[in-house]
């Protein structure tokens, strides 16, 4: 029987906390208490909380400020505000900032229980919708029957029950995170958290705080204690994506954490025991990075206990029809717009003959495009030719730009925009990988994206 939801009561009056606890525990809910906003924020970082009941008027950080911070960190976490000084304006302000509802003290028993039940039901619906979107845009299972994928599935089944560290390599878009999640879901840690960190997306000066957390006052802007990813993943799995982009300082601290199974928060002195399985991934050749002194060899050997290499899609073309049909079927299940679409055999054959430099992610996007833009229920070979194979060549695009644009400056800017957009799509919107490929700094790419209003 599934556990009842866990509810966090935050109020600086112990008598109110006791009343609410008695009511909720009588209904078999699990209850956690916090007497101030700072403690509430810490609890939501380290515990699985399904609902927060939050007082507005508290000493220190008030309820509205706590609400804002909660919504920044966990936007789908329902929050019910309570206050003994309720006004319509306070209630309106709280709901505008994301509160599910507002209840006056002392709470009416029936009103409280109905609101709690409705808030939890609403949260569950949001989670289900999010799961549907996840399944729509990302494969839930590793798909394919090629010999290499069959062997990878066998490897995952064999290593998942252990706590051995795994290093997954492969080009962008080959499904490295999917493999990591599969390992976690088949492991003894499946009931605990799977926490992912994109090492390339976090500035090097902030990565240490992201991984290990920090104490209040550790640096400018550290206004409160923060729990790091290692602590959040305690008992579960920590997925370090793009590990090859980690700075030398961060590499040294991660190595120490792996050696000692302990961490120290930035600005702290207390050692904290952590039990975390590390799965890492990279699209770089780490041996080459070691030769260039960009990556620590001792950390590489710690991470690469079990290596798994994912081949690019062009090296397992027999899986393309399986993937394309699965993506199309998933689209149809989750959106009526895509329902009833199928592929002709010739269309699948032509898809299998393409190079797919963006790998599985590119194929997935193309299937969605074909499903939307092909005129009939069956996607035919001519649709693939028109919408995939014969998309406008770079030369044709440039010729059209010459005809349409009058000034040289406008032409240069539009050509630059198109070039950057194409490269970002090729590298799955990984700014670090794109910057390496086209030999410019990441900051320049962000500036150009802002200048040309480029969004994923």
Structure overview:
With 456 residues, the chain is α/β, with parallel strands linked by helices. It folds into four domains: 6-135, 3-Layer(aba) Sandwich (Rossmann fold); 162-310, P-loop containing nucleotide triphosphate hydrolases (Rossmann fold), CATH 3.40.50.300; 314-389, Helicase, Ruva Protein, domain 3 (Orthogonal Bundle); 394-451, Homeodomain-like (Arc Repressor Mutant, subunit A, Orthogonal Bundle), CATH 1.10.10. Helix content is 50%, strand content 14%. The strands form five sheets. Strands 2-1-3-4-5 form a five-stranded parallel sheet, with helices on both faces. A hairpin with a 6-residue loop joins strand 11 (262-264) and strand 12 (271-273). The chain is globular.
| Biggest sheet overview | 5 strands, parallel
The level of helicity is 40-55%
- Over all CA atoms, what is the radius of gyration? 26 Å
Indicate the structural class. alpha/beta
Q: What is the spatial order of strands in the main beta sheet?
A: 2-1-3-4-5
Instruction: Count helical runs.
Output: 20
Tell how many strands the DSSP assignment holds.
16
Kindly identify the CATH topology of the largest domain: Rossmann fold
Basic shape: globular
Beta percentage is: 5-15%
Proper CATH architecture of the largest domain: 3-Layer(aba) Sandwich
The top-level CATH class of the largest domain is: Alpha Beta
CATH superfamily annotation of the largest domain: P-loop containing nucleotide triphosphate hydrolases
| Count of domains | 4
Quote the distance from N terminus to C terminus.
41 Å
Low-confidence runs of at least 5 consecutive residues: 133-139
Residue-averaged pLDDT, rounded?
Answer: 86
């Amino acid at each position: 029987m599934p556990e009842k939801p866990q509810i966090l009561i935050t109020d600086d009056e112990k008598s109110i906390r006791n009343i609410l606890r008695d009511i909720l525990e009588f209904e078999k809910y699990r209850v956690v208490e916090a007497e101030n906003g700072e403690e509430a924020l810490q609890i939501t970082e380290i515990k699985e909380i399904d609902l927060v009941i939050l007082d507005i008027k508290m000493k220190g950080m008030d309820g509205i400020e706590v609400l804002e911070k909660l919504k920044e960190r966990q936007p789908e976490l329902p929050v019910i505000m309570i206050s003994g000084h309720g006004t319509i304006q306070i209630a309106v302000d709280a709901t505008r900032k994301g509160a599910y509802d507002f209840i006056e003290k002392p709470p009416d028993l029936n009103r409280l229980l109905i609101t709690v039940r409705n808030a939890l039901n609403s949260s569950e619906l949001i989670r289900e919708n999010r799961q549907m979107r996840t399944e729509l845009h990302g494969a839930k299972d590793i798909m394919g029957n090629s010999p290499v994928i069959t062997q990878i599935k066998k490897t995952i089944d064999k290593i998942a029950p252990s706590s051995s560290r795994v290093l997954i390599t492969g080009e962008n878009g080959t499904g490295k995170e999917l493999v990591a999640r599969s390992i976690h879901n088949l492991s003894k840690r499946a009931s605990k958290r799977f926490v992912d960190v994109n090492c390339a997306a976090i500035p090097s000066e902030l990565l240490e705080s992201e991984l290990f957390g920090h104490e209040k006052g550790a640096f400018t802007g550290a206004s409160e204690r923060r729990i790091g990813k290692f602590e959040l993943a305690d008992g579960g799995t920590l997925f370090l994506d793009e590990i090859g982009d980690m700075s030398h300082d961060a590499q040294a601290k991660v190595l120490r954490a792996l050696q000692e199974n302990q961490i120290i928060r930035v600005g702290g002195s207390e050692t904290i025991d952590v039990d975390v399985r590390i799965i890492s991934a990279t699209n770089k050749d780490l041996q080459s990075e070691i030769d260039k002194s960009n990556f620590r060899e001792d950390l590489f050997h710690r991470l690469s206990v079990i290596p798994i290499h994912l081949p690019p899609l062009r090296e397992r073309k027999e899986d393309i029809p399986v993937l394309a049909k699965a993506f199309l079927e998933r689209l149809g299940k989750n959106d009526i717009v895509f329902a009833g679409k199928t592929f002709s055999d010739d269309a699948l054959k032509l898809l299998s003959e393409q190079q797919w430099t963006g790998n599985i992610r590119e194929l997935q996007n193309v299937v969605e495009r074909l499903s939307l833009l092909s005129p009939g229920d069956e996607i035919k070979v001519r649709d693939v030719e028109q919408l995939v194979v014969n998309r406008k060549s770079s030369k044709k695009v440039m010729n059209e730009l010459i005809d349409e644009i009058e000034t040289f400056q406008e032409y240069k800017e539009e050509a630059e925009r198109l070039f950057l957009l194409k490269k970002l799509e090729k590298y799955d919107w990984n700014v670090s990988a794109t910057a390496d490929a086209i030999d410019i700094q990441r900051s320049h790419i962000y500036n150009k994206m802002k200048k040309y209003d480029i969004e994923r």
